[in-house]
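step: validate -> pass
step: tokenize input -> pass
step: predict -> running
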Amino acid sequence: MASRSGTQAGVKSALRTLDLLEFVVAQPGGVVAQDIAVALAIPVSSLSYLLATLVERDYLRRDGRRYGPGAGLDRLRRPAGAVSVVDQARPLVRGLVQQLNETASLFLPRGHEIETVLTEMSSQPLRYAIEPGTRTPFHCLAGGKAMLAALDDARLDALLGELELARFTANTVTDEAALRREIAEIRKAGVAFTRDEYTPGISGVGVALRREGEVVGALGVAAPTSRFTDAMRDRIVAQLQRAAATFSAA
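step: predict -> pass
step: emit ->
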């Protein structure tokens, strides 16, 4: 049987977590950790752990230094039987592979990174492979760039202020000004491209996914650069944009 002190500590932790969620949800523009600590009288060490855990579980979203409600809270509000982002995107990912025979993936935002949560592989011997659960920075995959471009300016500025633009290949965009110029072009085109920016010899195309106007993830298709012709790129763009439209209309 749990001790009384242990039970009280568990209750205190649960109440502190609920207070934290309620406070963050009530801040329309998000809130920085220091303001949370002061408002709720939570020690910084305890707060850092709580925030990291809630971001990891997707109940909070981190944009730069500010925290806001995450997609996990939306899942809690969703009626029983409602379709999750992953379940809704699964047939779209499968359909992309059937149409293009190139590797297709679903990406979800995870703090300062994106996570590959679904992947369907091409059947071709030479193909791109990425495992579900893989986390990568926003700036080096087409799906990540598509999500950055879909953010409003305030959220984009906050996030870019915190991102480390690490280099993975000679083509990785590591200059913030250059990345911002690329994001402006992605916003105009509605689609993002990468060429040998994370994995040498692999090019990609990505589009953001929206649900009720909110960015919830991205779809991406990646293929060996050696067969990434203009005609092939145009086919991928058309299929991705059709899939994104289908997702938003559901």
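step: describe -> Residues 4-25 form the longest helix (22 residues).
step: cleanup -> pass
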